[in-house]
Amino acid sequence: MIRHLAVLLLLLGLGAAFAGLMAGYTPDEELNLTGRYYAENTAKDIGAANIVTAIIVTYRGLDTLGEVTVLFLTATIVGMVLARGRRERALQLELPPPGELLETGSRLLAPLILLLGAYVFINGHLTPGGGFQGGAILASAILLLLLTYPTRRFGHRMITVVESVSGLAFISLGVLGLLFAGGFLDNRILPLGEYGSIFSAGAIPIIYAFVGLKVGAEFSSMLVNLSETEGK
To answer: Does 20 fall in a domain?
Structure first.
């Protein structure tokens, strides 16, 4: 009873706080100085049709590096925590084989999901999307296969290689931006190309491709580690 009352009071307090914020909210009639600079100069400076992508990859490239690092540490911690359980007792589940419909459907959908993920991060400089979104879509294909074949063991080596190579390439592109352009992950190490075309925005498509592969590998690693401890 006391716990329910505390939860109710917490919800009422949060509701009152948000209600006060909404009641006193006044939308800005114009962009602030920073926002106006991005809106007016991004296309000219970065060559990306998607302003959000340009800001994430170039203007705040170090923050993007931090986000990728946090995700990498999370995947590493999950693997280390679950590794002990795998050594103590191997996973042995007696499950029936997947039905023909499920198996055929997963074999059909998994390549399409991977293709969609690649499309999302390759076109991130033109349309909504990018490396993080595309990487999550890639990992969803692995999740589909894990649900279809729960007793099958997926190779950690391939996932590790993809993650390591993508991370190294991402850092290398960032350093090249420091050496040959205006800063870390500066996309102007390559020509900006024709605005609005697939080969535009300098190195952003390449950067996002490696980010997408790295994020997809990290999510996949966590999913595989969790699947191998299921049922213990």
So the answer is: no
